[in-house]
Amino acid sequence: MPTFDTKLDPNLESVGNAVDTASKEIGTRFDFKGTSAAVEFNKKDKQVTVFGDSDFQIDQVRDVLYNKLTKQKVDIRFMDVGKMEKIGGDKLKQVITVKAGIDGELAKKIVKLIKDSKMKVTASIQGDVVRVQGSKRDDLQAAMALMRKDLDDVPLSFDNFRD
Among residues 153, 130, 108, 133, which one has the least CA distance to residue 7? Predict the structure, then answer.
């Protein structure tokens, strides 16, 4: 029976490279000289932390980061921006989580979307992956097209296509 897996799979190596190049640019830019503007990546927690003196400066640092992520071919939709937090004095930080793996809420949304479409495929949640099974390869490709169209806010990838 043909199957495929749906998942969120960012390239963390490219994210790390983008953070490194963004950090170098922030260090050399004139408008960031003498400020606490910085960006750090914690690969274990899959979090990028942006530091700055004001919310405007954090927005500028985030724009530099997004530019570098785009050049590394990392989809911006993987980034889940958190709230700004004061870290002492007039310094601020913002934590951006890199989405990896499908969480329970999104998995349920995918399963519901496939069930409501009345296609001859079934979807099952298996950890942080949603496996879709069908009797025909064309049905699975139609399911992929449906997910790409209706879930455009999430950069889904399709793996493990088997006949």
Answer: 130
**CA nearest neighbour of 119 among 102, 136, 106, 131:** 136
Identity at 93, one-letter amino acid code: K
Backbone dihedral angles phi then psi of residue 144, each to the nearest 5 degrees? -60, -45
Can you give the pTM of this predicted structure?
0.83
Nearest to 98 by CA among 57, 64, 52, 50: 50
Mean pLDDT of 4-11: 89
Instruction: Please give the single-letter amino acid code of residue 73.
Output: K
Residue 123 · residue 111 · CB < 8 Å = yes
Average pLDDT over every residue of 120-144? 89
Hey, what are 115's tokens? 């069930």
Q: What band does 52 get if pLDDT is binned at 50, 70 and 90?
A: very high
Residue from 28, 29, 31 nearest 53 by CA: 31
Estimate the share of the chain in helix, then strand, then coil, as percent rounded to the nearest 5. Answer: 40, 30, 25
